[in-house]
User: Which sequence fits this backbone?
């Protein structure tokens, strides 16, 4: 396979620099990669995982730490899967790789009734296999291609269908405490990744198993967020930032915040002189203050 050289247009170079900066910032903010890490890049053949590998290859060349990359693809034996595409691409770009063949497709189709969502079981089987391969290969970090939009979509899936305030963390220690999963594209939008993949003309491989289910709950959430983004540009980014600025005392999780202890923490009210109170009231109505009473009342009205 002949790998196309990156375009030389100014718009591509700006997008590439922007994505590299976002990935570098996420890796730094969450201490995703350190000296001597052996990183397994999970490569599905989609736009996200190709972009992930491309970004990590750049990081490998320019980061102030030594790291190894191993691209891993799980061949789930989906009908029509082009088995030669990924090996040819990875050999052309000079990335060590491993193709793992395991027929999870037949298992999922056999176990899940017709018309039901396949992704839950498929992802659990795939995750278990990848964790096993990581152990066999001495991997210290497992890199997945989930991006910012995936993270926000997962937040709403859990809110609407699971009754939980939960998303995808940029960095995760698995339940058995044996593996660390990282998501270096956590700061990148899907639209930017899609544009980058088109510029690079990656040899994309569609997922016929998941792609055959147009009514997935995630697809509905994705459409909702896209509608919001068209009407209110920047909303998805704002939603993602909210996951980075949690106020436990303003939620309702008793395991996360000690609501029962608030009474003991309460400070007794201090007596206020009449003169001080009159001054404070006048100050609220003064046009020179930064936060006039009207603005304060507008902010508080949501609580009332």
Assistant:
């Amino acid at each position: 396979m002949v790998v196309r050289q990156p375009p030389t247009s100014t718009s591509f170079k700006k997008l590439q620099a922007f994505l590299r900066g976002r990935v570098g910032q996420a890796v730094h903010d969450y201490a995703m990669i350190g000296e001597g890490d052996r990183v397994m890049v999970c490569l599905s053949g989609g736009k996200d995982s190709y972009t992930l590998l491309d970004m990590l290859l750049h990081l490998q060349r320019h980061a102030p730490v030594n790291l190894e990359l191993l691209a891993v693809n799980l061949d789930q034996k989906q009908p029509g899967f082009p088995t030669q595409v990924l090996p040819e691409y990875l050999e052309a770009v000079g990335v060590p790789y491993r193709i793992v063949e395991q027929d999870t497709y037949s298992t999922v189709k056999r176990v899940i009734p017709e018309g039901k969502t396949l992704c839950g079981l498929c992802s659990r089987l795939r995750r278990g296999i990848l964790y096993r391969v990581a152990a066999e290969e001495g991997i210290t970090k497992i890199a997945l291609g989930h991006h910012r939009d995936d993270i926000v979509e997962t937040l709403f899936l859990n809110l609407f269908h699971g009754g939980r305030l939960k998303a995808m963390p940029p960095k995760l220690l698995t339940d058995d405490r044996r593996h660390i999963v990282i998501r270096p594209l956590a700061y990148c939008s899907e639209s930017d990744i899609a544009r980058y993949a088109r510029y690079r003309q990656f040899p994309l491989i569609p997922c016929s198993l998941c792609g055959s289910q147009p009514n997935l709950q995630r697809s509905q959430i994705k459409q909702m967020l896209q509608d919001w983004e068209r009407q209110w540009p920047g909303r998805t980014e704002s939603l993602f930032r909210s996951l980075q600025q949690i106020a436990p005392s303003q939620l309702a999780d008793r395991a996360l915040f000690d609501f029962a202890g608030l009474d003991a923490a309460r400070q007794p009210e201090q007596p206020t002189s009449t003169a001080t109170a009159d001054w404070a009231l006048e100050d609220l109505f003064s046009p020179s203050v930064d936060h006039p009473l009207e603005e304060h009342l507008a902010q508080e009205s949501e609580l009332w």
Summary: Confidence is low (pLDDT under 50) at residues 296-304. The chain is about 50% helix and 10% strand. The chain has one domain: 10-248. The two ends are 64 Å apart (CA to CA).
